[in-house]
Design a protein that fits this description.
The chain has 120 residues and is mainly beta. Strands 6-5-4-3-7 form a five-stranded antiparallel β-sheet. It has a two-stranded antiparallel ribbon with strand order 1-2.
Length: 120
């Protein structure tokens, strides 16, 4: 039986007492997709059939700082948003060689969306 934890919410992010063991809330449709040859993308999952993935409101995660792996990025977001290189969102993206699809926590979603648009 799971005990109810005390929590507060600030700007859409839930916080619990230090030391509490909590399973992070995972989004049903916001994912990070690693592909064979098109890099890494984050966005809202529209469709996933085998290696074919369709995302909407997607950003390419070209370079990130403050997460050691995509798994950590999907759970915790980035720790150094000013050092990340995430270009603007695209409305629709079709990926044909997806090899990994990772659901994100709300904390990670806020972090990814909060990174300023990188322009060269």
């Amino acid at each position: 039986m799971d005990a109810k934890l005390n929590e507060i919410e600030v700007n859409g992010v839930k916080y619990v007492p230090k030391g509490s063991i909590v399973n992070p809330v995972i989004s049903d449709n916001y994912v990070i997709v690693r592909t064979y040859s098109a890099g890494v993308h984050a966005g809202e999952l529209v469709k996933h059939e085998g290696k074919l993935v369709t995302l909407k409101n997607s950003r390419r995660l070209w370079f990130w700082s403050g997460a050691s792996s995509l798994s950590q990025l999907a759970m915790e977001g980035v720790k150094n948003p000013d050092k990340c290189k995430f270009p603007c969102e695209v409305t629709t993206l079709y990926l044909t060689e997806a090899i990994e699809v990772i659901p994100c926590t709300q904390v990670a979603i806020n972090s990814i969306k909060g990174v300023k648009i990188w322009k060269q």
